[in-house]
């Protein structure tokens, strides 16, 4: 692989790495936050259950995480056929 | 008959290398999960073993040519080729065992390539050929080795920083419990990816040995028994655990929390999968270690033991030459003695060295029981906080 081709691959790895590698945990964290019980400001600290809306979005986040992970498995199994890798 | 015995010795040695590859790399996927308690040690290695087994069978396109672009073995025939393979494997195994003894994660791929390069180099000198492709070594081994930990550290660092910002306000118990589940998922993905990538190496080596023996030609299909044997060998090795290395990665480098663990393994998985499909060979070990380091950098107040990191990098730098030296020396011994006698002597040396290393390891054993014990070294001063 020539140098230019390698540099091209490197930035792609970095880009996809950031997108999925950083994106997925961030998405997961978002899901946890939307799902989470957070004491209201100034209250006695008793946990307040997040609104139904919030929780729904939280589960959507987790669903997306699972979908991305499954996508990862599909790439492992069928990647060469899908992306014409070598 | 003599050739058959030599072939059998080489195949056994290849599977032994695959086995060491297994336990060397368990840490890459599972060290973070074991360190945070997301998985119990024995469960973690069992899970990783099963996924490696599955992954090894999933590798549809098996690389029949190991070391292509790195060594030029076109002019090596029969016994000479077999000896290069044998010597290369021994170089790889010895380096894997030594680094395991020292608890240092290091690339099994580099160990194997180093051994093959050393053997091919010596063969080339003797046979008047150029056995080694230096350009390929720089492009396919050295450059990726320099880049992968950096890329991994960046990705994992960003991931960790993002996670801590986004999950602000989530109570710690929820955070830890939730991210422990995330850890299991991401670590599983890494194990699967590892199985598909790494078992292939040994399949390619055995294929090369079969070509040398005249049993197969380069256009033959990969025999099923080779696939099965390599898949089983790497899975068994994975199950054994490589606890010394797990301990270093899980406890010695950075004190890891569940969010960091998930960030590290997800980052590793993403990078490994992307790079393997772009044909850019990155070592799983370099990526995994870089990721763990990155999570230490991405979290405020996290401590990174730079001394441990330094030792790892030193090991990585000398992997190629060290394994190469062993490979070259073994080739020399085998060539001088010649034939079956040479092969038996080499095998004997391998067994003796392995036994010695194993006995040394028993002086300070690490197992599933003490893998999470406190690391005694003084930690470096906390890494500078990443600017918000």
The number of helical runs of chain A is 2
Structural class designation of chain A: mainly alpha
Question: Strands of the largest sheet of chain A, in order across it?
Answer: 1-2
Strand elements of chain B, count = 0
The whole-angstrom Rg of chain B is 21 Å
Cα radius of gyration of chain A in angstroms? 19 Å
Number of strands of chain A: 2
Greatest chain-chain interface?
A-B, 42 and 53 residues
Report low-confidence residues of chain A grouped into runs of 5 or more: none
Helical content of chain A, roughly? over 70%
Percent in strands of chain B: under 5%
What is the CA-CA span between the terminal residues of chain B? Answer: 69 Å
Order of helices and strands of chain A: HEEH
Q: How many structural domains does the protein architecture of chain A include?
A: 1
Parts with pLDDT < 50 across at least 5 consecutive residues of chain B:
378-388
Task: Give a short overview.
By secondary structure, chain A is mainly alpha-helical.
Structure overview:
The complex is a heterodimer of chains A (86) and B (388). By secondary structure, chain A is mainly alpha-helical. Chain A is 76% helix and 5% strand. Chain A has one domain (20-83). Chain A contains 2 helices and 2 strands. In chain A, helix 1 packs antiparallel against helix 2. The longest helix of chain A is centred in the N-terminal third of the chain and has 33 residues, at 3-35. Chain A is elongated and about 55 Å long. Chain B contains 12 helices and no strands. With 388 residues, chain B is mainly alpha-helical. Chain B has one domain. Residues 378-388 of chain B have low confidence and may be disordered. The radius of gyration of chain B is 21 Å and the shape is elongated. Chain B has helices at 2-36, 41-58, 78-101, 108-127, 134-166, 172-213, 224-240, 243-252, 258-277, 284-298, 306-337, 339-361. Helices cover 74% and strands 0% of the residues of chain B. In chain B, helix 1 runs parallel beside helix 10.
């Amino acid at each position: 692989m020539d140098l230019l081709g390698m540099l091209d691959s490197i930035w792609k790895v970095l880009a996809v790495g950031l997108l999925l590698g950083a994106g997925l945990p961030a998405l997961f964290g978002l899901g946890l936050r939307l799902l989470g019980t957070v004491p209201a400001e100034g209250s006695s600290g008793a946990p307040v259950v997040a609104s139904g809306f919030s929780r729904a979005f939280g589960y959507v986040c987790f669903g997306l995480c699972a979908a991305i992970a499954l996508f990862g498995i599909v790439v492992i199994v069928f990647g060469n056929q899908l992306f014409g890798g070598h | 008959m003599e050739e058959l015995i030599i072939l059998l010795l080489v195949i056994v040695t290849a599977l032994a290398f695959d086995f060491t590859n297994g336990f060397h790399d368990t840490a890459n996927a599972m060290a973070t999960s074991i360190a945070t308690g997301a998985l119990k040690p024995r469960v973690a290695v069992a899970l990783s073993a099963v996924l490696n087994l599955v992954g090894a069978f999933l590798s549809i396109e098996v690389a029949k040519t190991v070391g292509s672009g790195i060594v030029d073995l076109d002019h090596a025939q029969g016994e000479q080729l077999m000896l290069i393979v044998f010597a290369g494997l021994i170089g790889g195994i010895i380096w894997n065992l030594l680094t395991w003894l020292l608890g240092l994660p290091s690339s099994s791929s580099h160990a194997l390539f180093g051994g093959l390069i050393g053997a091919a180099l010596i063969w080339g000198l003797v046979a008047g050929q150029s056995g080694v492709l230096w350009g390929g070594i720089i492009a396919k081994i050295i450059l990726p080795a320099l880049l992968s930990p950096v890329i991994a550290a960046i990705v994992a660092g960003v991931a960790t920083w993002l996670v801590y910002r986004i999950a602000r306000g989530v109570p710690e118990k929820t955070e830890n419990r939730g991210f422990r589940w995330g850890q299991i998922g991401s670590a599983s993905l890494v194990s699967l990816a590892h199985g598909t990538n790494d078992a292939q190496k040994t399949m390619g080596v055995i294929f090369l040995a079969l070509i040398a023996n005249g049993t197969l030609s380069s256009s033959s299909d990969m025999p099923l028994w080779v696939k099965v044997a390599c898949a089983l060998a790497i899975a068994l090795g994975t199950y054994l655990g490589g606890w010394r290395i797990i301990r270093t990665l899980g406890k010695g480098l950075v004190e890891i929390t569940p969010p960091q663990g998930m960030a590290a393994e997800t980052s590793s998985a993403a990078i490994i999968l992307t790079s393997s499909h772009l044909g850019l060979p990155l070592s799983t070990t370099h990526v995994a270690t870089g990721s763990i380091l990155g999570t230490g950098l991405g979290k405020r107040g996290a401590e990174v033991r730079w001394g441990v990191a330094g030792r790892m990098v030193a090991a990585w730098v000398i992997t190629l030459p060290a394994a190469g030296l062993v490979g070259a020396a073994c080739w020399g011994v085998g060539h001088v003695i010649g034939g079956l006698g040479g092969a038996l002597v080499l095998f004997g040396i391998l067994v003796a060295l392995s036994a010695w290393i194993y006995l040394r390891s028993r002086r300070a054993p690490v197992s599933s029981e003490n893998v999470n014990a406190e690391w005694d070294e003084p930690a470096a001063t906390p890494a500078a906080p990443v600017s918000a």
